# Entry
Amino acid sequence: MEEQDKLGRFEQSVMPHMDAAYNLARWLTGSDPDAQDLVQEAFLRAFKFFGGFRGGNSRAWLLRIVRNAFYDWVKQNRRGEEATPFDEELHGTVEERGAPDAVLLEKADREMLHKAIAELPVEFREILVLRELEGFSYKEIADVAAVPLGTVMSRLARAREHLRALLVARLEAK
Amino acid sequence: MSCKEAEEVIHGYLDSELDVVRSLAVEQHLKDCPGCGRAYRERQSLRTAIAGGALYFEAPKGLERRVRLVVRQAGRAGDRAEGRRWRWNWGWPGLMVPLTAAVLVMVLALPLVMRHAAEDRLAEEIASGHVRSLMVDHLTDVASSDQHTVKPWFDGKLDFAPPVNNLADHGFPLVGGRLDYVQGRPVAALVYQRNKHFINLFIWPASSSSNAAESVAVRQGYSQGYNLVHWNASGMTFWAVSDLNRAELEGFAQLIR
# Structure
């Protein structure tokens, strides 16, 4: 009985975030089949831990599980490069801004944007996805990405600068 | 507010994450300073480009159905477990009726019946674990045929050290290992291969109460179309599960023992 109840509540409060889970998984893994497997694994974990979920933001809660499952998966199945610890400083510098790029940037199309974001280090990718695509607040991002609130803004700033630089370089080369 | 200060909080401003006082200060600065104003507009246009870029990946159609199915399966497995436990709890008082002979028989038989029921449930859980390991492309957490790689991998992940042997010489090469959950506890799952068949060997410390006594008794079974072999040895409980035929699986179990 209890288990049926749990399933019902789970389907009502967590299942609707399928798109959010898939979107994050897709951006993190970079491939559709990997993302699908990751989502399935994350939902199974979520169901297992659902008893410990104290209510509140179920989308952020689920995305944290997706993210954790992703990093476990990287550690286990993958080449080591993405598993190396992220160095804020290393990724902290980007060349000085030059001419106004506002008009130029508006010319970036979906394909170019997609490629540029996919090339960013995974820590930048996840924070951009959470902020720009999921519309999460800094507090929610801090919860999902397990970083201090203060780090969210600085990392987001760097992520955007990197993305901007990539896009500008490509748009100018066109 | 200086340009440097504005630069530090500009993303917070862009994301509406600043308090009112700082937000107004930034706004004023952007009006006063053409350079910062330009930089801000540039960032806005980046956001606009992302927002309008149709970058959100929606889940493919089949995925929700697939996930719903496996979650329901997990739910049902838990439900069956609930149901059984429930029945025993009711069974006890019912069996205590003062018919001495019956009571005596029952009391002697009940632990056996209970153990069998518990074992059935466990066998189901083991078979499900096996299926899941093959289904979600999550067969191994550590993929290695080297027992000296696989064994230390479990250090710090489990509160016991599972015995790991490579049986490649006997036609059962070690594929790797994985953490799994059985009966709510983390267990070691070793993966072996026989031709095209995978064998999951689940290992965890034997509970002292239930089956330490039958330390070498071997049980064979069949659950959800998979063969299972179960035994206890040197304080550990072992469950081997595979779609391999029973004789070969039993041969595998003998090698491990």
